[in-house]
Amino acid sequence: MQAFTQHSGIVIPLDRRNVDTDAILPKQYLKKIDKEGFGAHLFDDERYLDAGDVDTPPAERRPNPAFVLNQTPYDRGTVLLAQANFGCGSSREHAVWALQDFGIRAVIAPSFGEIFQGNCFNNGVLPVILSQRDVDELFRLCRQAPEQPLTVDLAGERLRWGDREWPLSVDSARRDALLAGLDDIGITLERAEKIQQYEVRRRREEPWLF
Amino acid sequence: MTQHTLYDKLWDRHLVDTLPGGESLLYIDRHLIHEVSSPQAFAALREKRRPVWRADANLAVPDHAVPTRNRDLGVAGIRDGLARQQVRRLQDNCRETRIPLIDLTDQRQGIVHVIGPEQGLTLPGMTLVCGDSHTSTHGALATLSMGIGTSEVEHVLATQTLRARKLKTLRVRFHGELDEGVTAKDMVLAMIGRLGTAGATGFAIEYAGPTVAGLSVEARMTLCNMSIEAGARAGLVGYDGVTEDYVRGRPGAPDGADWEAAVTHWRGLVSDPDARFDRDEVFDAGALAPQVTWGTSPEMVAPVTGQVPVPDEAPPGQRDDLRRALAYMGLTAGQALEGLPIDRVFIGSCTNARIEDLRQVASLVRGHRLSPRIRQAIIVPGSGLVRLQAEREGLADIFECAGFEWRAAGCSMCLGMNDDRLAPGERCASTSNRNFEGRQGKGGRTHLMSPVMAAAAALTGVITDVRGL
Ligand code: SF4
User: Aconitase/3-isopropylmalate dehydratase large subunit alpha/beta/alpha domain: from which residue to which, for each copy (chain B) (predicted)?
Assistant: First the structure.
C-alpha cells in the first residue's frame, strides 16, 4: 500500500450528498483487468457530454464545462471535498483506483459508504470524516480562495487551510498502516499458525464446512 | 442466561485473533468470486508469489458482464472484447489456483448471490464474503455475509480471513400481514425510505418479527439483499424451520449424520430472547402499499398511490438534491406516480430473479399482452437452474406469449455492463436494487419496484398499482 504522511493540494468542491461509486466510475470501465488508467474516467458520466463509449479516442471526447473537474484550478485538485455518504453503493474498488489515478490523495466528507472507506485505506487514499459544520465551512473557504491549498497532516493529526485548523481523527489501526505503508496480508500471514489452529478446531466441530 | 444477538454469535464463532490496533481477524468460510472484482486481486497474488490459502472454500462464476443471449457459444459468444477477456481471465485464474468455477456454459451459472444459496454453498452459520456489495443477500440463511473490495478479495484469497471491526446491531421488526400484491421488496423499500441510504451505516440489520417469520427464504433474501441500500454492510435473519426446509437436500448441504449434527448446531443461530440490540425499528407491514422509487437514490421512494415530493417544501439542506433528482428523472414536483409512462421493463437481478419472483410475474401476465407503449420487456432469471425450472413449469411460455423476452442468466440490465442497457431519457420499471444516475445506462431513468409491480407496468404501459388489476 502507498504510504500517507502529509499532503497539500487544491480542494475540489463537490457539494452533493450520496455520491455513489457508479457515479465515481461508471460500469463500462469496469471491464479492465488491471488498475491503470481509470483516472481518465473519474466521474465520466458527468465529466463528458458524449455517450461515454469505451472505444471513444480521448481526443474526441467532449468535456462538460459545467462539471467541477473540468474547471481551473480544480482540474489540478488533489483533495476532494463532498457531502454525506460519499462512495455509497457498489463495492467496486475501481472507484478508488480512479480517484488515485486522477491524483486525489484524500477525500473529506461528513460520512462515507463503508466499503468505499475501507477501499480507500487499502489504497493509500485517506478518507477524512469532518463534522457537517466543518465541511460546510471548508466549502465556503475553498470557494473564496480556490488556489489556496489544504494540508492534510496525518502524522500530526491536523487539517490546515491558511490559518484555520481542524483536528483529524482516523481509526488508529488504519492510521498506523497508512503512515508506514504496511502490507496487510503480510501482517496477517504472520498469524498463519493461529489460522491453521482455528481451522483444525472448526473442522472437528463443523466437519460439513470443509 | 446469555444475551447474544445472532450477529454476536456469528462474530464470536469466527474470531481468529485480534490485531495490534484493535481490528479483528475473522475466519471466512466461503468466498464467492466473479469476473469484475477479482482479476486485480489474482494478479497481485501472482506478483507477490502468494498461494491461495484454501481453494475449495472459494467458488467463482462469471455473471456481471456476460451477455444474456447466444449463451450456447460460451465465451466466444461474448461480442465485447473487454468482457470476453475478463471472463477468460477468470477461467485462467481458477484453473491456475484450482478454485472451483461454474463456467458460462454450465447450467448452474447465474448471479453469484442466487447460486450460492441455490447450490447449498451458502450454509447457516457461515461467514461469507464476495467482492460485491449485495453479498448481504446470503444473511437470509443466518450467515454473516458482507461485500468487500478487491484488496480484501486478495486478503481473503491469501489468508482465508478478513480484517474487520465489529458492527453495531439494528433490529428491524415487521408485524402485520402483507396486503395482496405487497411483497418483501416493498417492505425493504419502505424501510430504506424511512432510514435513508446512510441510515444504517455501521450496522448489521437483523430482520425479525412475525411478518419476516412468515416469509420464504427467497423473500428474506430480497430483504437482506437491499440492506446495503440503507448503508448496512450485512443483513441477517435467524434460523428457523423455513431455513431448514430450504437448505435440506441442496447439493452442498450436509447429509446423514452430518445433517443431524449441523441442524442441532444451526438451531442455535438465533438472537437470544433477551439479546440487546444497539437500535430497534418497527414497521407495520400490514399498512404498506406497493412502493416505487421516483428519484436517483433508493431512499427516494413513495407508495405507488403517492406523489413526487416538492423540493421547496423540503428541509433547506435537501432541496438541491431533490431538484437535481427530479430534473434527472424528468419529473415535476408534486406529480402523481401512478400513470407515469414506462418505456422498458427489466425483471431480474439478485434482488428479484428467483423462481418465486417469476411465478408471481407469470400469475399476473398469464393470458395478457404487453402494452404497445412498452419498447422492450426482458426477464433475466437469476440462474440457469431458475431458467430451467421456469421452463418446466411453463412460465417461460407465459412470458413469451405476453411479449416478454426470455433471456439467459446474469446481472444484465441491473448494471448494464452487457448489451442490455437503457438509452438516455428512457424510463424503466425495474426489479433491481439501484436507481442511481446512469446505473442502467447513461441518462436512463430507473424506477425500482417489486416483480408484480413491474409486471403490472408492463401490461398497462404506465406505473400502476398492482392491487387494482
Ligand atoms: S444483479 Fe445487480 S446488484 Fe446483483 S450482483 Fe449483479 S450487478 Fe450487483
Answer: 8-461
A64 interface with B at CB cutoff 8 Å: no
**Same domain for B332 and B456?**
yes
Taking the centre of ligand 1 as the mean of its atom positions, its distance from the CA of residue B382, in whole angstroms, is 10
Both B11 and B121 in one domain: the answer is yes
Q: What is the pLDDT of residue B1?
A: 53
**For residue B299, what is the domain's CATH number?**
3.30.499.10
Same structural domain, B251 and B345: no
Spell out, as residue ranges, where chain A has pLDDT lower than 50.
none
Residue window 178-197, chain A: list those with CB within 8 Å of chain B.
Answer: 184-185, 187-189, 191-192, 194-195
- Give the Cα separation of B104 and B108 in Å (integer): 9
Of B151, B159, B415, which is closest to A195 when you measure between CB atoms? B159
- Residues B69 and B136 occupy one common structural domain: yes
> How many Å is the Cα radius of gyration of chain A?
20
Residue B222 CA to ligand 1 centre (angstroms):
12
Q: Is the ipTM of this complex over 0.90?
A: yes
B187 lies in the same domain as B242? yes
Candidates B89, B152, B198; nearest CB to A33? B89
* CB-ligand 1 contact for B411 (6 Å cutoff): yes
Distance, CA of B13 to CA of A171 (rounded, Å)? 25
Residues A121-150 have pLDDT tens digits of 999 999 999 999 999 999 999 999 999 999
In a shared domain, residues B349 and B415: yes
Confidence of residue B391 (pLDDT cuts 50, 70, 90): very high
Domain count, chain B: 3
User: How many residues does the structure list for chain A?
Assistant: 210
Same domain, B332 and B438: yes
Instruction: Using the 3D structure, point to which of B287, B309, B337 is the last residue of a domain.
Output: B287
Residue-averaged pLDDT of chain B: 97
Q: Which atom of ligand 1 is nearest to the CA of B414?
A: 2
**B290-334: per-residue pLDDT in tens?**
999 999 999 999 999 999 999 999 998 889 999 999 999 999 999
What's the domain range around B120?
6-164
Cβ distance B83 to A31 less than 8 Å, yes or no, reads yes
The pLDDT, as a whole number, for residue B20 is 84
pLDDT greater than 80 at residue B13: yes
B414 annotated to bind ligand: yes
B433 lines ligand 1 (CB under 6 A): yes
> Model pTM?
0.97
CATH code of domain A6-183 = 3.20.19.10
Of B270, B287, B304, which marks where a domain is finished?
A: B287
Which residue in chain B is spatially nearest to A117 when comparing CA positions?
A: B149
B262 closest CB neighbour out of A94, A202, A208: A208
Domains of chain A by residue range? 6-183
